[in-house]
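Aim 2, interim progress. The first record below pairs a target sequence with its structure tokens.
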Amino acid sequence: MESLPDTTVAPVFLTDDDTGAAVTHTIAAVADETWVIDWIQCSYAADPSGTPGNLTVTIDGTTVIDQDITQTNPPMLDFSEQGVYGGANEAVVVTLGAVAGVQGFLNVKYH
């Protein structure tokens, strides 16, 4: 049985933005380490028109969150009670999909 990850370690904050391209944060796999996502905040500088934006989270290649983003400032996804996590030695990729000509912003807190 896998134990819960250590939640006492210091958090890391990732912030990035891009216009017309996907914004991606990759948290590399580390031997004997399990990454825990505490929260994700994303937004677009303008409302996505036509096709909505998209937020995905994959852990070790498996999509665990796939959410359409249809407004400029969607609510923060707060997982601080339990976190979102996989197993030891698994990479995490958080991606805010591209919307043509619109700047996207992605913030991730993890430990």
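The second target in this work package is listed in the same format:
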Amino acid sequence: MYLSKYFFDIAASCICLTCMLFLLIQRRIPRARNRIYVIILINITLSGVVTTLGGVFENSFHETGYGNYPALYLCLFLYFIFHGALAFLFCCYVFMVNGIAERRNRMFYIILSIPVAITELLVLSSPFTSAIFYFDQNSFFRRGPLEWVIYLISLGYMVASVYSLLRYHKAVTAGVRHTVLLFFVVTLIAVLAQFLVPGLKVELFSEALSMLAVLLIVENEDQRVDPVTGVYNREAFALENNRLLGTGHVYTVLGINLNTSDSYLSVLAPADYEALIREAAEFLSAQKEADLVFYPLKNIFAVICMELEGHAKESEEAVLRFEKKLTERFRQDWSTGKLRIHLHPSIIEGKIPDEFATPQGILKMIRAGEEKTGFGGPVVLKGKDLSYLSRREQVEEAIKKAIATENFEVVYQPIWDAAQDKIVTAEALVRLRDPALGYISPDEFIPVAEKSGLIVELGRIVFEKVCRFQHEKQLDKLGLEYVEVNLSTYQLASERLEEQFLEILDRYEVPISFINLEITESASASDNIALLRTIRKMQEAGFRFSLDDFGTGYSNLSNLLKIEYKNIKIDKSILWSAENRDSARIILEDNIRTIRKLGLNVVQEGVETRAQLDEIVDLGGNLIQGFFFSKPLSEADFIQYVKGFKGKEEV
């Protein structure tokens, strides 16, 4: 029954063997940190084995007076060799997990290895110096005078590991961080317990349990591997970029965007498509320049190429070699089933963090290039080719900052009523001026806000500023009947839009009739049932709508029958074309007369001259907007303009 005292050591070895068996049967992508993890498991397993065997030999020796003394000595010697390196190995593992040890130069690893080398040298010298352990004259185990050095060095590695986790906490998820910290806490408690109660051999067992937790939370990559390609997926791509950016690494991301070949890929049977994508993944994974391969989005691969510390030029040359391999391979056909497919991807190169400094920006980068189809072969986009992406990311950040501080300005462009010869309404327009980027045109930041989903919050801010303006200045007492507020299609997709707007109107005591919502023809022409349902629901609540930019893109008079409108705004491009082309003038005239016969107001945009004004009024247009009357004005200037307006003859 003497083995019962080594139950925990036997259990530790069994746990680690089970973990290794799991890794063996699991589909895994080999990485340096995975190899270190396996070495740790082997270390704990062997430590448990030699400890147990040492116990057998020791028990036999002391009970009978006979036994294999050299074998007992060897077991203890090997235990100190194995276990003395454990803290170093786990420190290396932590440095790999949070990324600070990725692609470092040789000196980094030499410095990191010096303390453990001292430990191992002390152990190796123990047969001659008794520095770490020895057996006394009665053949009992005794601790050597320098054993404390091993514990001190192990403590140093633990402190370094904990510091790196806390210093670069953003580089790993909370689950990973807590699991690794658990290892240190549990191990420390077990060491203290075993020191206070020498017969309680729980140190190896606690380390094995911690390694099991690491396996389940850190090493288990089932949720981060794409089942079709066998490479990492979108979640893993985001985590890896977050890890590398969080620890200040410099690297290159190559996006291989196959969406430019979608016309070919879409005709493939599912099995043939998967076989083709899998073949592409295997090709990328086989290239030595590719440190990690991902399949984050449909038809898009991403490859991370790390820059070796102190070897920037060599790393850049490796990326160029890889790009050459890619272009050469994609100039050839790909076979799938009985078909031969020619792929012509966009290959996008991004320098991280110089060009793209956020995981979101990197993901947007690899989606770029779809407009450059490259039918003559693969197209490589880099540097200045991607400057618009950097600008887009900067604009998005400016929008986010402006939303956080509500630092948007709403300006108002007056709209003149021909029948009353007065300003009866205005269009609210949003402006953005960023401290770093300066003035940003609405034509630039509105599309970015729409694509990023920020338009919903931006629209809320504009709507609230308009309502606050009416509440504070009582615009209706100046003769204004309502204000036109633009509404994005993306806002219409929000289920809370009606509730949100009604709450703002109520808070500022603004009647619902004072707001007219402008939507574009793209929303009007949409067959999206949800959008049309939102519009009708808001109309039932009392909101009125104008149709903006009529005559462009989705122009169709049938669109006027889908939704009940108050105003139809004819795009300025039609007016300007009508000055030089008879066909455009006929279209303008017919549109105005048809709309007026339907009982709707015609708002003509872009009127800049008296000749244009007279022509539109003669054709039946009753509301006029444009620089002839005024450019968009700030709140104070708008109020002054309306108060001072004396009629069109005074303009």
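The chain has a mean pLDDT of 86. This observation will shape the mutagenesis plan for the next reporting period.
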